[in-house]
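Have a close read of the entry that follows and walk me through the local backbone shapes. See right below:
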Amino acid sequence: MRENDLDLLRLPLPSDNPLEPPAEWERLRRQCPVSTVELPSGDKATYLTRYDHVKALLSDARFARPTAEDEGAARIAPEGAGGPAADGSSTLTLPDRGEPHLRWRRQVGKYFTAKRMTALRPGMVRTAEGLVYDMVRQGQPADLKACLGFPLPVYVICDILGVPAADRDRFSHWSDAFLNVSRYTGEQTRAAYEEFAEYMSAHIAATRAEPGEDLISMVIGESEGEGQGLTDDELLGTAMGLLVAGHETTANMIGKMVAMLLADRTRWERLLADQGLVRTAVDEALRFDANLGFGIRRYLTEDVEVDGEVLPRGTTVVCSMPAANRDERVFTDADDMVLSRSPNPHLTFGAGPHSCLGQSLARTELQVTLDVLLRKLPTLRLAVSIDELQRVEGLLVGGLSTVPVRW
């Protein structure tokens, strides 16, 4: 069942505050799980909000994000305003369909093993403890996102890619431009993208000349050894994409996770009483996050049936993972933050052949953050009311602009 144009919803959907889900989600899941929405660009897309529908489409290898070759694919950003990731015709060269995509995942995924994440963890702990120490020394109130949420994943992903963390402010600007929907003009976005590509191209060339232990060195080595590795353009797209995904989304999630846990003090107190809940609490924060962004787009290369309705080839579908994560058909007490929830099959990292390669890294960073804060700052609390928190605007990803805290 689709809504008529008089009831046409426009993304992003409004909510009472940045931590609460839009009221429309529950109604859509119940009455109109396959609906038509309008994107900021003015284009229309199909919007999915039920868990089984979202998981099925994300798991289907036939469907991927729109590319420049996908005629009629809906744009998220207005003409001339969006970044490469927003307009459906990204200039990143990354294989996204079929065997080339699987080959790319196999090569890059070799780095993100459980063993390697375990090896990275002590360094993450030391970095997080140092950042918390600096935050306390500077005095309260403090912005937890600026002091810990942003720098921790930047240091980690820079180490993984072998780029200097001293350039983190430039990375932040380039990432925002890459994820832009309405924050920058098209000219500003293109300029930032060109600077970003030039920087990473020079880094890849330097790494090729003097390889190290980082991910880029590993991929270059395997490419040269097997003869079926990534092209230079694919390597550039990988480096740029991982730098964006590896710090922007996790930095935002750290702030949101801490805000969600402090918004209801009983959650924080329960973790203080039982820090063995940190692992399940992190996954529950990932599920409970209502401020995740637009969702994941899929371009239908052939007709597909969803909820008894045939969506024709050429349709752009927006899969709302956060709406699906609140589906009461799958999650008992879906609108409660249950810190001990297990199993927790949330869709925050996607599903199937396009699920997030770095999810083990993100989980490790979030667990380390929570462990360190519970140990070092057990009296941590929000310095403002929930209603005073401000959401990130104008980007594909959701988040909080600041997370003011006291202790």
In short: The chain has 14 helices and ten strands.
